[in-house]
Design a protein that fits this description.
The chain has about 300 residues and is of the alpha/beta class. Helix content is about 30%, strand content about 20%. Strands 2-3-7-4-6-5-9-10-11 form a nine-stranded mixed sheet, with helices on both faces. Strands 12-15-13-14 form a four-stranded parallel sheet, covered by helices on one side. Strand 10, helix 7 and strand 11 form a beta-alpha-beta unit. Helix 1 packs parallel to helix 5 and helix 8 packs parallel to helix 9. The longest helix is centred in the last third of the chain and has 17 residues. The model has no long low-confidence stretch (mean pLDDT about 95). Magnesium ion binds next to loops.
Length: about 300
C-alpha cells in the first residue's frame, strides 16, 4: 500500500517498519534506535540474524557519531561518492545497536541519493534498511515488488521505479587496504580511480551476506556463455540479439547498455515468477568490466 511522505515520517517515529525507495533498490526501513523494529525486519525478511543491516543517513554529519574512526582514504571516498550507491563498512561506536550490526564491531554506512529519502532521513534520523525482498529473492525496484513479497497492506513510501536497479557497492578496509565486499551499482574502476590503486575482492567471510542464496527467481535458470542452444524455450536476453528457436524473450534491454540492463534486472527476474516460468536460458555473454561485472555477478548468483 503506497503511503505519503508525512505518513512515512509518523510511522517510522512510532517504531514501525515500512518500505522506502532509494536510488538503488527499495529498503525495508526502521529507526536505528528502535530495537524492536529492527528485530521485526529480520523476522519479516526471514533474514538470518548473522547478516547485518546497512545504516542509511541523510548526510555524513548525521552518521558521524556512529563511526569510531575513518580508515585511510575513507573521507576521500565519502566526499566523492556520497550521496550515492557506495556502502562503507566502518568501525562502529556503541551508539549502533548490536542487533543492527549482527554483533560485529563494524557498521555498514550509506548515504542514499534520492531527494524524498534524504528528506525523510532528515526528519526521522538514521534508518536501517536491508533490501525490501524476502531473503534469497530478487530485490525490489518498484512498490509493486514490495507488495508482492510482503502483502498489499504493507506500507511503501512511493518513489517510483529505482533508477540504478542494483544494490550499492560495499567496500571494507582490512589487511591494510580497501576491498570489495559486494560489487554493486558503483563500478569498481571508479573507486580505483579515487583510491589510486587496484581493489581486491574480500574473502566471502568478511561480508556475511555473501554466504546466503540471493536474487533468485523460482525458475530453473541455465546460464548461457555460448550460442543459444535452442532450449529452454524461454530466454532472458537482450533486445539487440536474436535467439533463434526461442518462444519467448524476457528482454533486459540492449546488451551494450549496462545502466539499462541494471535498471531492468530485478523486474525481469520477478516477471519470470509472475508468469510462472519454470525454466529459462540466461544470456550472460557480457563484458567483465564496469557495471557489467555487477550484472554478471547478479545473474550468476540468480542461477545458482
Ligand atoms: O543498495 C543497497 O545497499 C540497499 C538499499 C536499500 O540501500 N540495501 C541492501 O541491503 O542491499 P542488504 O541488507 O540487502 O545488503 C547488505 C549487505 C549484506 O550483504 C550484509 O552482509 C552486508 O551488507 N553488511 C552489513 N553490515 C556489515 C558489516 N558490518 N560488515 C560486513 N558486511 C556488512
Ligand atoms: Mg539484499
Amino acid at each position: 500500500m503506497k503511503i505519503d511522505f508525512e505518513t512515512a515520517v509518523s510511522e517510522l517515529k512510532k517504531g514501525k517498519v515500512i518500505a522506502i525507495p532509494t536510488e538503488t533498490v527499495y529498503g525495508l526501513a526502521a529507526s536505528l534506535f528502535c530495537e524492536e523494529a529492527i528485530a521485526t525486519i529480520y523476522r519479516l525478511k526471514n533474514r538470518p540474524q548473522a547478516n547485518p543491516l546497512i545504516v542509511h543517513g541523510s548526510c555524513f554529519d548525521q552518521v558521524k557519531n556512529l563511526i569510531k574512526e575513518m580508515p585511510p582514504k575513507a573521507a576521500a571516498l565519502a566526499n566523492r561518492f556520497w550521496p550515492g550507491p557506495l556502502t562503507l563498512i566502518l568501525p562502529a561506536t556503541d551508539l549502533v545497536p548490536s542487533l543492527a550490526r549482527a554483533g560485529l564491531p563494524s557498521v555498514a554506512i550509506r548515504i542514499p541519493n534520492l531527494t524524498i529519502t534524504t528528506k525523510l532521513l532528515e526528519r526521522v534520523g538514521p534508518l536501517v534498511a536491508p533490501s525490501a525482498n524476502l531473503s534469497g529473492r530478487p530485490s525490489s525496484t518498484a512498490p509493486q515488488h514490495v507488495e508482492r513479497d510482503f502483502g498489499e497492506e504493507f506500507q511503501v513510501l512511493d518513489g517510483g521505479v529505482c533508477t540504478a536497479g542494483v544494490e550499492s557497492t560495499i567496500l571494507l578496509f582490512q589487511e591494510g587496504e580497501w576491498q570489495i565486499g559486494r560489487v554493486g551499482a558503483l563500478a569498481k574502476e571508479l573507486l580505483e580511480e579515487t583510491l589510486g590503486e587496484k581493489i581486491n575482492h574480500a574473502k566471502n567471510a568478511s561480508c556475511p551476506g555473501a554466504h546466503f542464496k540471493h536474487y533468485s527467481p523460482k525458475a530453473d535458470l541455465t546460464l548461457g556463455e555460448g550460442d543459444y542452444p535452442g532450449t529452454p524455450a524461454v530466454v532472458v536476453g537482450y533486445s539487440d540479439r536474436t535467439y533463434s528457436g526461442a518462444t519467448r524473450l524476457f528482454s533486459l534491454g540492449q546488451s551494450t547498455d549496462a545502466e539499462e540492463v541494471a535498471h531492468n534486472l530485478y523486474h525481469t527476474l520477478r516477471q519470470l515468477d509472475e508468469e510462472k516460468i519454470e525454466a529459462a536460458w540466461v544470456d550472460i555473454r557480457l563484458p567483465e568490466t564496469g557495471l557489467f561485472a555487477t550484472l554478471l555477478e547478479r545473474l550468476k548468483r540468480a542461477g545458482q
